[in-house]
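Self-study notes.
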Amino acid sequence: MEKNPTQIVSELGSRLLQLSRPNKGSLVKSLREAATTLSQIEQPLVTEIVNKKKALKLLEAELRPLKNSILKHDLLKNRDNDVSLLVTVCVSEIFRILAPEPPFEDKYLRDIFNLFLAEFSELSDTVSPYFSRRAKILETVSRCKCCLLMLDVDCHDLIHEMFNMFFSVAREHHQQNLIQQKSSKMQQRKATTQQSQQSLFNDISTIMNDILKEEASSSLVDVILENLVKEGQDATPGANNLASSLIKSCTDTLEPFICSFLTSCFMEKDSIQSNLKDSYHEIIFMVSLNAPQILLAVIPNLTQELLTDQVDVRIKALNLAGRIFAQPKHCHGEIYQDLFAEFLRRFSDKSAEVRMAALKCGKQCYVANPSGNKASGVLTAIQERLLDFDDRVRTQALVVACDIMKFNMKYVPLNLISEASERLRDKKISVRKKALQKLTEVYQDYCDKCSEGYMTINDQFEQILCKILLLCCDKDCKELWSQNMELVLSDDLFPRHLPVDERMRHWVQCFAVMTHIHLKSLNSILSQKRRLQNELRHCLTLWREAKDHNIEAVQRKLKSYFAKLSTCFPDASKAEEFFQKLDQMRDTTIFDALTLLLDELTSTKAQIIREKFLETIGAKHHLFDFLRILSTKCSPNIFSSEHVQYLLNQLCSNTSVNTQLKAPSIKLLLVILNMFPSYLRGSEKQFLKLLKENVSVGDELTEALSKAAPYISVNFGDYYPALEKVCLEGTRSQAKYAVSAIASLAGSSDKFVFSELCEMLIDSLLGGRNIPTTLQSLACVGQYSVLAFDSIYEDISRYVYQDFQAEPSENQPPCDQSSGCCNSCKLKIYGLKTLVKSFLPRHGRGQVVRKIDDLLNILKKTLKSRGLDGIRSCDDTGANVRLAAAKAVLLLSRKWDHHISPEIFRLTILMGTDSNAFITRTFLTKLHKLLTENMIPSRYACAFSFSLSGPCRDLQDDSLRYINGFIRNATREARAHRDLDQGESLTESPAYMIVFLIHVLAHDPEFPSEDCRDEHVYARFCGPLLSVLQVLLGNKETAPFLFCIFRAIKRAEDAVYACITPRLHILADIGYAAVNTLKCIAVTSPEAPRSILLPSSLYKLSVTSMSDSQNKKKSNTQNALEQSFTERVVHIFQSQISMHDQRCQEDIPAVVLEDRVLPSLLRNQIETSLTGSTEASKNNTRCSRKRAHLGLPEKSTTSREKKNSSSKKCKTVEGAEHISCNSISLRTVESEIPIKKLERHSTCSKESVGASASNNVTSSSHSGVVSAIKDISNHGEAIIGQRIKLLSPTDGCFYPGTVERFNSKSNAHKIAFDNGDVELVCLNSESWETLSHESLGQQELLGKETESFGSRNCVPEITHAKANNDQKKKTTTKQQKKKMPTKLITPAGEASVSEVTNTSDNIVLRRSRRQRTS
């Protein structure tokens, strides 16, 4: 009969008990058999408690022998691993079978638990063959709750050790390993038993839970918390998971201990002895993950940390809060509402570091819960920080916002995209750079997702591209200029392998939201790319043909090309240096590759060529980086012929293009073709179809066609019918481009084509069909085919002149509200434009030989009259016709300026004073554009001055902006011309406009009457002059030019009407006084040019003389009064100017004149003889004398009466009808002066005083004035040491001095004057005589006497010689110590010929040929 397992165990126990000293082998064999048999014994399946106890007693009796044998042989303390393991298994099975009663006495339990712990410590060895037995022991101990007995026997140290042991052996893979090893046995078990098995991890957790729930302690909690936050090599995920599991399962038990510890960390951190006090934030975080309700009592303390004054504490608390709220699938925002509210407020913390930390935490929160209830609040806080006042915070907010957009692109709020893209315009360069980097990454991801179909094209994301384009307008950062933005568009903006059609979808959508500013920026980038490609083509051609040309000439051209090409690179200086190296290399491989890239039209092939080229030269090439950028700029990578073909295919397809995207598609197509017309090659048929179907954009398409004509191959007959129809039936704009396209496509047959077209157009014109378009077509034909237009010119001109003389119809419709013109005036304007354009043919299209006089005559009549002289226009719109006439004059001045008379010039300039503000603004805008493009002479810039001083503030602002732009451009060009020619021309200076402005003002019929003494009247009338002087004097170098201009005008007379000359002198005086007042300087600068060119058609040389000193005295007195009058005029103007004009003068530094002499003008000077004044000069003298009475109290007459009286006396000077290129030359007579001291003692010589007293300037007794003038060109060093006296042409006075040295190179003598000045003078061109016969005493006396006269008394006021001598004796002593007066206005009536050629009014300043020595 087979024995049952209990009997077998009993017998095994009895045999072991009988052995006195069993060996290991017998022990192992017996214990293994016992362990196997014990595993087969189950507790009795008895439901009644009484019966179960009886059954357990019977089992205990059967197991007692084995139990006694284990105790007898002291097997609980056996050190052998095999024996110890088998004993532990048997003991655990006995515990299981006899549970719930403990099978051993308490005194043995400690040894038993030591056995358990010893085996538990080996659980980390999952590959051990005994792992399954140890796991079984753990399972048994867990199920039987054996460890609770440890509490009964006070084994707390073992419990603490067990807890540490469990944390050290816990592994995440325990569960899987255990399942794999038990699989074979589990297959033999019943399904219910199989389901009841627990994992090793759960068994450990169960044991620990049982102990904690039974008797938790702070020491055990410390062990749990330590393993919860343990870091470093000792930390294991299994331990962390075990600690988390305990916190979850024992929440109620552990809560008091955890809260007490954390509260102490907040309140009494320094008094805590635990090492965990520094990790309390991490403990809070881990606890919040497992049992957030535990922290409800702790969170208020964390909230208080967010409000503390210590920044580092706030940042740590903020990071903790951010981690808590950043956990996915947790609703901590709802649990800790107060903490979350304070967390959001930290986004606006006073510390920038805290705000930056909040942004990082906010990103984590949103990424963890993008659809949570609190996500919107986090996004709002992040968005607000994009406008933070600290650039570091804005940068961090930008990075966070872009990361959020990349994470959740499909559902990101649109306003966040908009605000982030606005950082591209941030005031800080660093923020703009970071915005460009991050937003390009966002845009790339956006393009990829659109290509993959994950999302559709979005206008807000396309705004990123638009705003990136605006970066090329950045003036502060060179790295964001168009040179770099081109590389961004080509390399960084789109994913590299994004197909052409996908790129164009984005570009079309971008054009749908693009404004004109964005379009302008894109055009600037594309135009720079085109400019580089064109210049590089010329450069490559020059490189190849260098052997056949002059080497020096080639090098000069190459240098010029390099300078232009380098401007297209971020670092122009380095780029130019690289081009120089490339020139020295002359590598044909590089040249050929660049040529291929320039000729290639498709981006796909260009990319292959570029990659092959870069691979060929290698990354180690010393110019690799430069050639990489250069090859990129040469490639059609932004747009190409493939892009054009895609657009045309889409536009020609009726179903493939959204109706709303048709307009932006055409707009994009036109932008590409306008910049790169060659890209149309290969798509000619589609373009023709588009041209025929889209009449609304026909003008733009025909413009693109005209530009692309040289690059495409088409049959002219296919295009001509459509273009001809446009010329006859289209709009004026369409007709303009249609004629241009015909001219481009017709080629050599354009003469015949235009002849036929002219006949059709004339028939249409005379037939009254679509007259505006017909006139436009005729005008354009006249520009492209002079011969064809000449044949019909008479018919057209007759038609236009008749139209100008036609009376406006009473039944005509009212004026068009959009243009402000009636139909009659429109036709006049269109006809005028037709005639004007016919005189301005395109380059290479022929030369006009017909006379322009008739056209100029009708322009003059149009500008002068309002219904007079045969010009008829309606009262409301006559200003528009005059505006068209003024614009016509401006355009004609490009090629016909020498035919434009002074009167037409004046009438054109006065359009700036029109009462209609719209007319004035339109005229000034056109004028500004033409001046900026250097299309017209710069003299027309004086028109800005009239609106600059006008009553309209908007026009003042516009005029100020225009004139400042003109001054900048003119100054830059003048300097470039000076550097090139090594000379300076005053006519190129922006200050030269004053010459023409004074002419216009002098001929103004509103000029104050001759006897007007009201300074306010002059201040108002001279407003244009004074206003423009304010602007000009913003440049310190302008003052000397202005002085010279005014002095030259003072010595000239009007070339048109002689009686106007006094007005010129009055204006010159006022201007001179204004410069002195506005610049706080009263002496001439050594920078003043030696020659001043005045236009001979406006001015002529004034030659006057005076023979009696009485007139000198009178004239001198009048000038003194006149000077005070002009100064009052200027002061009145200053007091009346607006605050806007005052701001224009703020912070303008005082003039600090550079001590240098500018090169003389390379112009012929008109010299006049010393004798013989003409009748015209006499008349001029009389006019000047009348002008000198301005300051006297005389009876005033009205300007109208003065005009009438003057018109009778004045006659037009013959030969002055037109403003020619000839000019009169007036030489300045100045020398350099000290910069710091602007005063010096200087007087007339003793001889000149005597000459004045005798009233005989030219008498023989005064031989030094004229008769003793000598030519010493051959004297050189012969006169060193001699005493001489030098004639000053300014005042007719002699200055005595001694010749000290002679410089043969400059042919100049060093002269030490008696008043202390030392100058270098070229005596060849001076008037002088020797004083060698004088005694030393006489010389000393002369020196003293010369110091007694101020510059204003160089021509003394003498009525009697004796009176003068008496007065001189009284004033000599006082005036010896006085400084020289700072300004002098020479009497116009007494100027001799030498004085006319001298534009300096200061006695102490001699001719500019002299050089001051130190």
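Second protein, same conventions, sequence then structure:
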Amino acid sequence: MMARFHVKARWARPQEQEGRMLSRPKPGESEADLLHFQNQFLAARASPAVKIVKKTDKRKGEEGSRDAERPPLQDSKDVVMLDDFPDVPPALTPTPPKKSKIKSACVHFEDEDPEERLESHDQHITAVFSKIIERDTSAVAVTIPVPSGDPFPRTFHRSAIKSEVKVGSGRKSIFAQKIAARRAAEKAATAPSAAECVQIRSVPVGTLGPEGSEGEAPLPSLGVDKTVDFWTSQRPYIITGEGLGNEKSEQEAQAIHKENLEKLQSMSQEEILQERERLLAQLDSSLVAFLKSRRDGDEGQKKELKKERDGPEESLETVPQHGVGASPSIQGSDMEESVTKEENEKVESTEGDLPVKPKKEWIHMDNVEFEKLEWMRDLPPPRQKKTRKGMQARFSLKGELIPADADLPTHLGLHHHGEEAERAGYSLQELFHLSRSQVIQQRTLALQVLGRIVQKSRAGEFTSSLKGSVLRLLLDAGFLFLLRFSLDDAVDNVMAASVAALRALLVSLDDEKYLDWTFSWYQGMAAFPFVPNNEEEEEDEEDELTGTEKSQDKKLKDENKPDPDVARYDVVKGLLKTRIQHRLRYILEVVRPVPTVVLDILHILTHIARHSSEACSQLLDCPRLIETIVREFLPTQWDPRVAEPGCLLASVHGVPCAGAMKFIRVLASGGRNATARLLNKFEMKSCLSRFIAEDPLDLLLPKEEAIRLSTEAFRLWAVAAGYSQACDLYRDLYPVLVRILQSLPELLGVYHEKSPMLELSVQRATAVVTLLIHVTQTAGCTTELQAQQSSNGSEDNKQILPPPVTWNQVSSLRPFLETGLKRILQEISQTETWQALQPLTTTYMIYLGVYYSACSQQPSVNPIDCLEELEHLTSEVLLPLLSQPALHSMWDLLRPCSALCNPLSCAPAPESVFSIVSLSCTGGKPPLSLVGSKSPFPFLTALLFLINSITHIHKGLISKYSSVLDFKGLKDYLHLSWQTGPPSVTPSSAWILRHEYHLQYFVLTLARRMAGTCPDYAQHASLHHCVAMALLSRLLPGSEHLAHEVLLDLAFNPEFFPEGKAGGPEAADFSDILHLGTSAKLAQPGSLAAFFSKPTRGVLLRESYQNLRFIRSCYLSHFVHLQPTLVRSRASYQGQNYLIQSMLLPAVKGPILPSDWPFFPLIKLYNKVTSAETRGAVLNSLPLDLVNTVTWNLQWILLLETWRAKTLQSIPAAAKLARLMCVFLTGGDLFLEAPIHCYTAALLSLYCQPKALDSLNLDAPLPGLASFHDLYTSLLEQFEGVSFGDPLFGAFVLLPLQKRFSVHLRLSVFGEHTSILRALRVPLQQFPVPLERYTAPPEDNLNLLRLYFRTLVTGALRHSWCPVLYVVAVAHVNSFIFSQDSTTQEGDAARKSMLKKTWLLVDKTLKKHLLYYKMLNAESPLGFDLYEQLPSMRLKYLQMVTQKEKEENASLLVS
């Protein structure tokens, strides 16, 4: 069968070939059909519609391009290629692509014939021979071979010549040194004497003539500044004659060079420059650089030759003589000289540093090459100095960070690296390189070390020592796919190391520990999925899609993305795209690794199952994965020898494993369908019965493992019971459950004996009680489902069948649990005992609350008996508990353990990455934290849940629990929690805060019941209402039922507004009368409100207080979009297990309600109008109840701003103003309605108070608003269309024009919307903002000043039309024209020009205002005072400017 591959080119169009039409493939064609079509196409020899052109490989030159043009062979194999999946892991540090140094010199066209191109370049042999010039050999000396007595010439042997040539800047082998010595000896025989050589070299450089300049550089045109060197150099730099291969090669090169110099002498300077330019234009830049490098390296060659002739001792002495009077080329080689000196010193010092002294009698050690023995030397000591730059991090084989100055011995194996050889340890780059080694041990070691580094990094051990995040660096470098590639390795050790490193990367054992710890808390079974909340989403294009359509569209996009792109935002999803579950199944089933690897794989699978319901489905759909785990690691029969003490398991296959049971349990939490498949298809019911029916101590397993296995079995059963599944096992295992409940009080005796198994036994006991909680909830719904079944009959196929457990079967267990609760509560004063048994006490409380909630709804239960049981429980158990001093101390611990009061306690860890979800926090989870061992939150939440269940059923017991709200620790905690800003929403904070919100909700629910029955409750009402308002804007997805209950019973409850009954409206009126907090009321001429009496703020508050029930219905109707999620949440909180679809909560992207939810009706109305206008529709008519809706919204905001102002502190003042502007942007004259007008004016007066104005910042980004400037532009356009000159609307337009806000807002009014200046009739005495905020500091924008002046002069801005802006413009223009501050020339000219034009104004009133303006005065009708006469300084300046104007005019007249 052919391999399936992706075809990127489209199919060719049908073409007529040889009289017939080629058919096109159709949907549903098999691979055989595609192969048949391919053979037809090849047989028809048709030209394809798409041609694949391969880009030329620069490294292969023209051959690569020719290879691309070759047609594919018909018999070539099909190759499977994975798109965007690299064959090798990426490098740790990305490097730029290697550039080719060879470039094609010619350009060839695709349609050019190769033969014609070859013929065009071919020339006749005569043309080649004609270019050959014979060399004149008449003057060349002929050398005769030296005669010898041997019949043949003697062979050269390198041992016959002593090497005296020392290595200079380069390294030469012994053979090369011998050859160089022989050539030097031959040259010395024919060369002049040493004295002559010394005499020639001693001649000054400047005295040499052209004849004495043999060997000079042949390229004088490469640099004009080196022209003198052309005549003074001693030998050529480029042409050396080495390629000629004869003895006269050097003389030939010098002769050629001499000819070049003579030609250069005959040329003028201009001709040389022209030739230079021509050469530089023709030659390749790389060739020019090569020629320059040859010349620059000449000095190094001279020094090397001098060392060869004079010896090393003379060379060391002459090196320091250069530098002062040397030429530029020698100065440029000083660095090389210093390096050479250091190397020579290093070579010489090597002989003394070698640990083994070489001896001459050793074979081939006559001449010792010390540089090749450097590896035997001791490493230099590590650098002790601290540098400013950070040094490369190096790690030990245990994954520990090695300090830079650590001097570790070499036998530890930490010095086997090239870079920084003196430092111990390996860098990440070196470990990455080692992980791709061909040696198995090296690959294994590298992966093991990387896994340990990741584990320590996640634990935060490198936070204070390293810059940046190790995890982020590794993931960016492709560490994830390195592990994925290594996981496919056939070697067991490499595979095991990859699994361990992947477990260290994904799994946090602390997270699993605390998730198991909170499993038995209230609603602890439900958890948020491990889905990153920072994924790249394109929300703009998906706004109009439903939730299902969004998820499907996002799934398709993820499928089309490459694996690295998906893994960059979600590691688990990226791994699932690589089908990691199939590889892990193969390892478990076929490879059958050691126990450690098996446990790591189970941890990895558990983490993947926590990701999402989709991940659980992919794991369930993986062939033979679940079958293998159940068969191999959850067998019902196994070898009994594993329970023997000291038995070391070589393999866990065939042995029950608690990790496998936990994986199945987490997988079942993904959804009720997954649970049903596990129970029925994979026969987990029989597995549960096997491990639950038998006591853990009787299981043939190690004790700890047996208890863990039993605990996970009960938890899995509890999850199934949470879906109303597996309840038929309850009847079969009822005796087992009774036996376990009877043995629970024995845990106290176990604690007194200090048994090491106590913690595990308590966890198992809590799992058993958690199971009974969900079975009781399921049994409580049986009667309801039976009634629905009988009423609907058998016609409805979608009806839910009643579970096979009834209330009578579960009610008999309550006495056992209540007795156990009493026994443990007697130990509450014993701190250690209570702390150890507190988890079990918590589940007892939750069970009793669930039991009585369901019991009150059973028709078979006598209500009187139920009430009597509640009274007995209250008097005998709960009231004595509330009076215990130990419980008082628990209330006091709420504040130090709270995550709301201590936001940093749930901040994400420094090494956390957004693509891998982790519950780790910055400071860990100490005992005094919300999930710590000493946290009071789980027990107090369960206690409040039980009290609320009792008071909901028995109203007469409400007053008995009034003392709960009087605890000082609780009041201090509530007071601080709602005033502190909530932590940012992260996976760790969401998981922690969800449990804290449960406690606050139960406190508020109890307070609501107290409000109607206890007369002394009013003192707590304001505090509890503030907590409720803060809780509404903090509740996370999954808690929609709690948010609905708070909205329904708490937020709008008049009982929580004691100000409405205790003189709050009168106090507001009295405050307005004394002008303590607000300005004068806004006049409303031209509006419908003018025909009504203008109510005071007290009247408005009283009316709002009376309309609270209508306000509540208004908000509940606007949150109807949360109805689907509300139904799912209600089923979970009300115990309707048959409706629960998954134990995974919705993904967290933020709170359920936004922080500005009180403005939600206004925002929704504005969005509705805006979207309609975007589609081209015009809303001429608005809903009939729109006026009531907007009025109720404004009433609610007025109540909060007056009596609960601190609850809205999280909303910026600018955001409040922007949302209030939506009243005017809905289209039409809605703002002219009398009630809307009154409440909007009252709110504006509050927002114009000094503190509110000081906090107003329109330049900062506002939440939910793309641009305030765009919103303000829309407001201006709306004012132009429908304002009717309304002063209230005008005040909203004027408010953003204050001087401290953006100048673009003022430019919009005076530049683009000047027509509104005629309608802004806001009287000065009624404008609530002081004018000083508009006039100070003086305006410095020249364009705006010109617009001010132009609108004043042209009459577009008049005092009668727009008194506020008239005063502002006059003040700024007057300040500008009389300003004495230094400015630019343009500003000075504009200043004088304005002053001249003002002096020449015909409008005397405007002229007087501009010239004689003195200061602002709110009491004056004009809004400002005038000078009676100008101050002397201003008068002189005015006379100077106007006199100069007269003189210029006079000079023009004379001329």
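Instructor comment on the second fold: Residues 1351 and 1357 are 5 Å apart (CA to CA).
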